[in-house]
Design brief:
With 241 residues, this protein is of the alpha/beta class. It has a single domain, classed as Glycerol-3-phosphate (1)-acyltransferase (3-Layer(aba) Sandwich), CATH 3.40.1130. It is built from nine helices and nine strands. A seven-stranded mixed beta sheet has the order 1-9-6-2-5-3-4, sandwiched between helices. A two-stranded antiparallel sheet has the order 7-8. A hairpin with an 8-residue loop joins strand 7 and strand 8. Helix 6 packs parallel to helix 7. The longest helix is centred in the N-terminal third of the chain and has 20 residues. It is globular and about 70 Å long. The mean pLDDT is 90.
Length: 241
């Protein structure tokens, strides 16, 4: 056996070993634990201000749906954990970690926001809403394009005849992961943050012509408001797509 063959065989074995470790339940549990600890440690230091639209405050739970951008997940996971919410995650390795985190914070999770499994996931979400949970979706998830809503939320809102409540948040100081598709950001400890809960969107089921473009525009209104309130409106790393 030549030296080149030995090297190729060794690289292949190392790749297989790395894959087994990465996808093992133990490693996923380890990463999930780190994420949970990070969220809880940072969140307790943050000063969070809530801006709630008067019409949103009048809604009776669970007769509405929450919509948000995927990049806002860090702040939303902890700030909404006391509500009875059902979220959808994709059947992927990264989403396995996210699912464990969400379950730890008390959320119900359905899997399926990915290609063929999307319909099944939406049906499970519909059942959860009928059982008393608030349905919530990352409008641009699970893989973008950033800040471009998928039709799943509109489908769900029309089936249930429920309004979508747009939610956005922002931190005054944050680490921005610009190489991620959603430009995920991590609030820096002791930052001032804002969570904006916008005007309920009833047109989604009242107007048959309501489209994802309309949803994008209304979601961006609360996003820009959250950015304005935290002084991030001119931050190029967080600029709307």
């Amino acid at each position: 056996m030549s030296d080149q063959t030995v090297k190729v065989s060794l690289r292949l074995r190392l790749k297989q070993l790395r894959r087994r470790i990465t996808y093992s339940s133990a490693f996923i549990a380890f990463l999930s634990g780190l994420a949970i600890a990070l969220i809880r440690t940072i969140t307790v230091t943050l000063k969070i201000d809530y801006r709630i639209h008067p019409e949103a405050s009048k809604l009776q739970s669970p007769r509405y749906l929450y919509g948000f951008w995927h990049g806002d997940l860090f702040l939303l996971v902890s700030t909404f954990s006391k509500e009875k919410i059902c979220l959808m995650t994709a059947p992927t390795w990264a989403a396995d970690i996210l699912t464990r985190v969400l379950l730890n914070f008390g959320y119900r999770v359905v899997r399926g926001s990915h290609k063929k499994q999307a319909v099944r996931g939406l049906l499970e979400m519909k059942r959860s809403v009928q059982e008393g949970y608030i349905g919530s979706l990352a409008l641009d998830g699970p893989s973008g394009p950033r800040q471009r809503a998928k039709p799943g939320m509109i489908y769900l809102a029309r089936k249930l005849e429920l309004p979508i409540v747009p939610v956005a948040c922002m931190a005054e100081r944050a680490w921005i992961f610009e190489r991620t598709w959603d430009r995920f950001y991590l609030p820096k400890p002791f930052s001032r943050c804002t969570v904006v809960i916008g005007k309920p969107i009833h047109a989604v089921y009242e107007n048959p012509d309501f489209s994802t473009t309309d949803l994008d525009a209304l979601q961006m209104e609360v996003t820009r408001e959250a950015m304005r309130l935290t002084g991030q409106e001119k931050n190029p790393g967080l600029a709307p797509s």
